[in-house]
Amino acid sequence: MVNRPPGKKLALLLVLFTGVLYSNAQHTSPLRVKRGTVKINLLNRVKEAPVVLDSSEYSNPFNETYYISRLKYYISNISLNNTQQPFTEQGSYHLIDAGDTASLHFNLDAAANTYSSISFMLGVDSIKNVSGAQSGALDPSHGMFWTWNSGYIMFKLEGSSPASAVINHKIEYHIGGFEGPNNALQLITLPFAAPLQVQPGKNIEIIITADLDKLWQGMYDLKIAETPAVMTPGILSKKISGNYARMFTIKEVGVL
Amino acid sequence: MKIKVTIGLIVFICTAFIFIAASEKDKDPYKPTYLKLEIPKGWPKPATNIFAGNPLTEQGFQLGKKLFYDGRLSKDGNFACAGCHQQFAAFATYDHDFSHGFNNLFTTRNAPPLFNLAWVPLLHWDGGINHIEVQPLAPLTAHNEMAENIDSVLKKLRKDTAYPKLFKAAFGTTLINSQRMLKALAQFTGSMISCNSKYDKVLRGEAVFTAAEQKGYEFFKLKCTGCHKEPLLTDNSFRSNGLDVNTYLNDYGRMRVTNDKNDSLKFKVPSLRNLTLTFPYMHDGRFYTIGQVLDHYRNGINTAQPTLDSLLKNRIAMNPREKAELIYFLFTLTDTAFVKNPRFSLL
Known about the structure:
heterodimer; A: 256 residues; mainly beta; 3 helices; 14% helix; B: 347 residues; mainly alpha; two-stranded antiparallel ribbon; globular
């Protein structure tokens, strides 16, 4: 029997033990890419005025006045783009709710790189519309899912207007639809004025304005007196999505 | 001595490792019993795997069953899923054209039976539901059915003493959310397979048709399988069978979903399995007997209807003898074992 000094065995064990710990540590943090934080901040506006639910009166391009009582829309599949290595957020579904200030800003944990534009979908991609029960931002309890005709409401604006002849002068625009000619999903791309440099330890903020005044015109003249409510997917939904697709602009990019 | 110490140390460290590993496991004792959906012999594979994102487990199935039979999913506690989907009626509403919902309201369509849903790509008479998991949202929130909202149901389930444990057994933690509730319900309803009627036994060589049933089957294969495709007895398509619109409901079927006028008055071709238990028939339950249904195909079809299915342009000719034989055959489609299967029963 070889009489090895026990110290060696102990050392070997320690090495093995450390090795196991190290590989575990590596296993739990596979993200070796350097990352930086990009805060997205959304400002809902009607022209210059901030969206204030229930109390502010607005006027559309057809001189119809209205109030907004509820405003919700989905932003999904966010990417920061460049020609070499764009960054795409994983599980990227954000429900923007004017009644919930916490929903108006969120952080992207983006790969460190230089980017020329940000793009996202206004709405929920078709895969998530056909894949059964979802959770988080896509939980149907948020009231953004059509129960009788499966699919997400991508944009919802509710309120009232003297121009509306329906019950309680209501206005209700529930816009969605993901199939074929009725696909109301809008891909938005907003270029940065100067290249965006994401670096570790640097917190960038992108302030995006959403001008709801765009809802009424563009692809289709949406007049409250004629159409106070749209609550189904279809050609009309799609046309209206073409209107509001133009509502986003980058107001400011800054370092926090 | 030194060797002993070393061995002792090694044993100690190894034990410690095992102990740590074991205690890690104790923290997460999630060990569900995985199940496999059995495809009956001779049946096609389901077009889509409804359990692809929802692994079927015994614990998930049992949770789904409890939810299915629980009235608390409705606003006033009176309308469980099972209220309108009764097992003894193959999970349709027995003897009702329209089911009854909250506040003495009627539904607006005949409740379809529930079975073999893994083979049904689009649910509801108009195909408006694209996934089994999201189907319960429709009756749960409809004002004339269960009249509830999701958050309120979840609050009730969270307050219950049994549900958190059942959700943990099914999904690993006590978290109760809509996704888990819906997935559990899908595990229960998606597992309902009806494949033991006399017709099935004849196909498997375990039984023989009587002479009349056999003649009815021959007629059926000649005139009916264009839509009621074997062995599921539906092709899951949407067609107009020449019914005039119900002027009270003005229900134009699939057109409501697609906004396409070519889909006017088209409804899903229902499976004929368990036919004797699912009367009355059609989307609005307008026919109470199989005889009335067959008379519609013989001489009731509105052949002037623009969207009428091409297979029915000349109606379906059958003499009284053929009609009787066809009915004898249709009687063989009842699966008593399914409607009495305790696996799908509350008790």
